[in-house]
Amino acid sequence: MLVTLNEVMKEAVEKGYAVGAFNVCNLESAMAIVQAAEEMGKGVILNYAEVHSPLLSMEIAADIMLYFAKKAKVPVCVHLDHGTSIESCIKAIQLGFTSVMIDASSDDYESNVKATAEVVRLAHSVGVTVEAELGHIFASDIGVGESSGKAETAENCENLEDVYTNPVLAKDFVERAGVDALAIAFGTTHGIYTTKPVLDLDRITQIKEQIDIPFVMHGGSGLSKEEFQTAIKNGVRKINYYTYMTLAGGKAVKEKLDEMNREDNIFFHDIALMGIDAMKENVKEAISMFSMI
């Protein structure tokens, strides 16, 4: 069942849990995610990130995600993750995405507000929901296309107040831009953690005191169950999750190949099935954790 971001998060907002948003970079990942969601009986978000365009174009991703979303027995939102421009968001909307993220967080504050408000105006006119980002979410040097090649951590940041989401600014941003959900920065990192993250989980509560809107956690792969669930209790309602899902698929394939002799035949479709099964189980574990089970 194809739905918007607001629709898939409705129960999560009411009952105090978070919906998982899992990146689709090929057919197999989409199959794994939707199968997991159906087996868990939970709504899910299919993310497409432009950083994955070398693997899968937005046009093909749209066809794959919309096909599975419409056939699914559970609510499925088709979402553009980290849209790099207004034009990218328009393209996603035209392709049938039901939700888009405009990420102008690297711009100055006023430019971020302006770009986000324009995307909101366009998207809301056709019933599409909008996520935006305020603050800076760190990037690892491993497992993330956005990485500059050098790991970003709280320890090598001179002033965390310059990168973490400011509660007062968040209120102004949401009121002026009119977004449906806000990705906030409180110490998480895109990619694989090379050092233990320093999370400011209380900041989520501080932002929640200013604005009543669903918050989004990016860069959550690798956190403990306790850290995830504390963030959820404090107001996070959407969690982006990709790195450890795709690692699970890769690990399953590697382990199988390691067991084989060099002369053994291996069919590519068998590799795909191994990856799907492993990713599905990992997604089910994540959905369970995000559902506060």
CA-CA gap between termini: 24 Å
Radius of gyration: 18 Å
| Unreliable parts | 140-152
Number of DSSP strands?
A: 11
Q: Please, what is the oligomeric state?
A: single chain
Number of domains: 1
Structural class, by secondary structure, is alpha/beta
Annotation field: number of helices: 10
For the report, how would you describe the main beta sheet? 8 strands, parallel, barrel
Mean pLDDT: 91
SSE pattern, N- to C-terminal = EHEHEHEHEHEEHEEHEHEHH
Name the helicity range.
40-55%
Under CATH at level 1, the class stands as Alpha Beta
CATH superfamily: Aldolase class I
Any idea what the CATH architecture is?
A: Alpha-Beta Barrel
What gross morphology would you assign? globular
Strand content: 15-25%
Strand order in the sheet with the most strands:
2-3-4-5-6-8-10-11
CATH level-3 fold name: TIM Barrel
Describe the structure.
The protein is α/β, with parallel strands linked by helices. The chain has a single domain, classed as TIM Barrel, CATH 3.20.20.70. The chain has ten helices and eleven strands. It has helices at residues 5-15, 27-40, 58-71, 86-95, 109-124, 167-177, 201-210, 225-234, 243-259, 268-290; strands at residues 2-3, 19-23, 44-49, 76-83, 99-102, 129-134, 138-139, 181-184, 189-190, 215-217, 236-241. Helix 2 (27-40) packs across helix 10 and helix 9 (243-259) runs antiparallel to helix 10 (268-290). The radius of gyration is 18 Å and the shape is globular. Zn(2+) 1 binds at residues 82, 190, 218. Pfam families: F_bP_aldolase (PF01116). Keywords: Metal-binding, Zinc.
